[in-house]
Fold this sequence. Notes:
heterodimer, A: mainly alpha, Four Helix Bundle (Hemerythrin (Met), subunit A), 15 helices, 0% strand, disordered N terminus, disordered C terminus, B: mainly alpha, Cytochrome Bc1 Complex, Chain D, domain 2, 3-stranded antiparallel β-sheet, 6 helices, 5 strands, elongated
Amino acid sequence: MTDTSATTPTLEVSQLEDEVRSRIEVDDSSRLVVSVFWASSLFWLTVATFAGLISSIKLHSPGFLGGIEWLTFGRIRPVHWDVAIYGFGGTAASGTLLWLQARLCQVRLPFPKLLLAAGIVFNLGIAAGTVAILMGHSTGIEALEFPVYVMPLLVLPYVAIVVANFTMYVRKRSSHTYVSQWYLMAVTVWFPILVIAAEACTNFGAVDGVAQAIANWWYGHNVVGLFATPTGIAAAYYLIPKVIGKPIHSYHLSLLGFWSNAIFYNWAGTHHLTGGPLPAWTITVGVVGSMMMFIPVITIGINHHMTMLGNFHLLRTSPTLRFAVMGSMMYTVSSFQGSLEALRSHQEITHFTHYTIGHVHLGMYGFFAPLMFAMMYYAMPRLMRQEWSSARLIKIHFWCTLVGTFLYGYAMCTAGVKEGLMMKDASIPFLKIVGMTIPYLWLRTFAGLILFTGTVAFLINFGRMLARHRVKFADATLFTSQRSWGLMMAQDRALRTADGEPGT
Amino acid sequence: MNRTILLALGITLTIAASVTGLVIIPNWQFQGLKPVVKSTGLQYPEQWFGEAHSGRGIYINQGCIYCHTQQVREKNYGGDIRRGWGTRRSVPRDYIFDRPHQLGTMRTGPDLASIGARQPSTDWHALHLYDPQITSPGSVMPRFNYLFRELTDSDVNRLPANAIKLPDNYARGNIRFIVPNERGTQLITYLKRLNQSFPLPEAQQ
Lengths: 504, 205
């Protein structure tokens, strides 16, 4: 493992041509598979956001779509979560994994037909799981609601992805292993083990009662920590240096960040059960694990920040960079919040309240999703050999994502703290607390609408990209005003010569 | 290439450690837990069976867990006991027959670990499930009207024994009475059975 920037500034012309030709060859091999995975992810993101909106409205206006069994809150709410994490997260992360690994290994994507079939079957699995929950077939285990009979449709495709990932790694032409690859390799080992162990303990009933709850939250926390987080970090480590044309600040910090994350994150899950009927040691382990998470979070944060230093002005022009930097910064913010949240004194107030929901969204929609969007904004023009058709739609998407996420986090976290403090005071009737949350729940619905608007903007841009497949290169779609257009184009040309690739 | 081996080893060991620590070991610790025999000769906790067992299934498939917990925290840690959600904290033994567990993580509504002790009345549960606004005005809980049969004034002469009269000031069309259907009855039986009042010795410490 040696440190290397994603770009190589001093290349001979012939070398550069070879390099570009090899990238085009790699992208040609992954075009269909990766764009199917990412198109699916946007479809599921739309479904998930829509289900989230319905759930949100139901919580301040319970009569909305009331009395309809398959749309009751207790069904549409798990649909929201499962479609978001597996439908959107699963396909976005798998597309990212396949494209990044092919690029970093400099090899063609292996088994394209198998992977295409895997993508299709995985989508069927998500659809089947969603229908099953709406019909009342949920397992009742939070984060693992999809019934057992749907699991083969999700597990088998993932096996194909894991195999493809290892095949590329074995065949890799580059001599080094880039930091993003450590994370990607880790995900494909961790995620299957997580799923197998958690499913065995819960839905296959290897254990009962409280032991099941511990396995459940060990999983529930790790599906974020060992699946979404490493994929997001891998994307950030790739995109930031790529766009600004400068190597990662420190190899040693990358190393420390990776291993401390690997060691500590997977012990943190039991803080979801603080105060619950568990032996004290299990909670203590979770709290310690959560506190130790400050090490990777600070390390990775510093590493990304130092890499960006001196290049923040590029945020004005590059869509990819804006989303990537938003994601990286929110990684630090939401992880700090998460670690503090694990403390017993903090949990006494915020546990069991909307605060947790706010935190989850700051992490998933503030950190993970923007990094996946950044990945798509960067890679899709290369895969399709065509630029994004509208900078304005990207702008709408970005600002909706940023404003929507913050508004959501503000509404839920504030409501949660007030809720927790009032709940501690037994003289306040419970229904008064419910009443207190109503305005915040309306605000959350409003935030959800903003996020939904952003998703639709992205969907339109993405759809146009797919529809006009193989239109010749146009200039990179950047955020820019008429006045600075000339300067921008000059910068872009300079970047392109160094990189041999279009901008965005 | 030996660095690749190091990477693979590290990745595997980190997850193996937490599987052992948080999945395998807790299971060993709880494996021996048995119910205790009460002075009445009955045991606590009881296995879920019959109507209550089916009712537990309804609780799960209606997704009650997304708004209700079934765990009481210790005295002076949060307001759980002061709010009367339980007389003692919950302990692992309370859950030995729970599969899948329904501890929950969210309290949009109150804790239900001992709802059976707090609300022993079938009528209360029926009215509350049929339309929460009847018993708890301002609640954001959805209606579970599909767990009930609705009767009007014209049915008044052939009312089943378990028909429950809606309050006079509550008007929804011409419906005057409700009767829990099979699933409704099962769910109410389950909710009434939720009771952690038995003073387990380990919960007193």
